[in-house]
Amino acid sequence: MLETPRIRRYSFIVTPLGDHVAVGSDNPSGAVNQQERPGAEEWAVGFVDGEGCFSISVVRNTTCHSGWQVQHEFAVTAASSRSALEYLVEVFGCGRVVENPRWDNHRESLLRFSVKRRADLVTRVVPFFEEHPLRTAKQLDFEKFAHVLCMMQAGEHLTESGLRRIARITEQMNRRQRSRFLESSEAIRQPPRPTAR
Amino acid sequence: MLETPRIRRYSFIVTPLGDHVAVGSDNPSGAVNQQERPGAEEWAVGFVDGEGCFSISVVRNTTCHSGWQVQHEFAVTAASSRSALEYLVEVFGCGRVVENPRWDNHRESLLRFSVKRRADLVTRVVPFFEEHPLRTAKQLDFEKFAHVLCMMQAGEHLTESGLRRIARITEQMNRRQRSRFLESSEAIRQPPRPTAR
Question: Global pTM?
């Protein structure tokens, strides 16, 4: 799988500010020169295995009939590699690169490739990962994500029982956080007993 | 680049413990079934773009002639995806998966794919990334890493001036931490003035 072993010569210049700038490497491609090469889809799978996140949340939204809305996002975060994230826009044919200010003291802002539109997720992102499965445990999050989108395509998120099923699935994804919707529903179903006076 | 849009049906079972287990998906491959498919190298590049780290440190070692040793490691970290890390051992033809206990309260231990042996780095890892360049800013760390290994192949780490050049390069990698070696050397070159009594 690997080529004949050899090591190439890299040259560096130390700038007046002490930065080391690579010059005259005999392999000039890479981060700066994003040349086209085969295997873009597999690279994207690997990058998502590393930095990707499939998330579903059931959040309060008083403009919805049920008072709750299902939000969905496929995102990939990278601090300082805008070109790599823009390449994901090309590979998936959807999404955009957004910039989040960082809450900590890092000099660089946090960049993320983000796809939120359900039509893009259903017609582009899900078929992509069906064709090119993830290799890490993130595949399990993807399968739950795809399942929820499928339920939404069937309108199940518009019923209370559907919302409840979706919320249960979200509790098994990513950081396995408790669903606010389920906590809220349980509170409605089991009102607290009146306190004794 | 993408296939005809369609969404597949996923089925889930809720276990007695509340876990959702995917069953009967019409795409059974993925994290569990690490089947062989083309593009393994590009997947590895993407995964390293996400979670990889090329590190060089100049550390105290009294058994070395100079009192300092240059340590090198290429590592990829993943919390709960041993099979993906073991796949890297196959792709690179070297390295191993090691387990680090976590210092925080996570249930899972931290797994990492690690290559430390210089012969493996020089004959396998460096040629691999020359053939398949990274697409994120990590490419710049790789180039510095390869450059230091090249200097070490020429024995430059055995001289004080070589050690100093290597230490300056390490200060421009990853988190850009100050080099203890340089701080130490400067202390030696400029001994503190005797305090007044």
Answer: 0.76
CB contact under 8 A, A1 and B143: no
Cβ of B133 within 8 Å of Cβ of A29? The answer is yes
In angstroms, the separation between the Cα of residue B197 and the nearest Cα of chain A is: 38
Between chains, do B44 and A46 touch, taking CB under 8 Å as contact? yes
Is the Cβ pair A46, B50 closer than 8 Å? yes
Nearest residue in chain A measured CA to CA from B77: A50
Strand partners, B24: none
Report ipTM for this prediction.
0.74
Residues of A in Cβ contact (< 8 Å) with B53: none
Task: Show pLDDT as tens, one digit a residue, over chain A (197 residues).
Answer: 444 444 455 544 433 334 443 433 443 333 333 445 668 999 999 999 999 999 999 999 889 888 889 999 999 998 778 999 999 999 999 999 999 876 666 566 789 999 999 999 999 999 999 999 999 999 999 999 999 999 999 999 999 899 999 999 999 898 777 878 777 754 355 444 454 44
Dump the DSSP string for chain A: --PPP-----EEEE-TTS-EEEES-S---SSSS----S-HHHHHHHHHHHHEEEEEEEEE-TTSTTSEEEEEEEEEEESS-HHHHHHHHHHHT--EEEEE--SSS-SSPEEEEEE--HHHIIIIIHHHHHHS--SSTHHHHHHHHHHHHHHHHTTGGGSHHHHHHHHHHHTTSTT-PPPHHHHHHHHHHSPPPPPP-
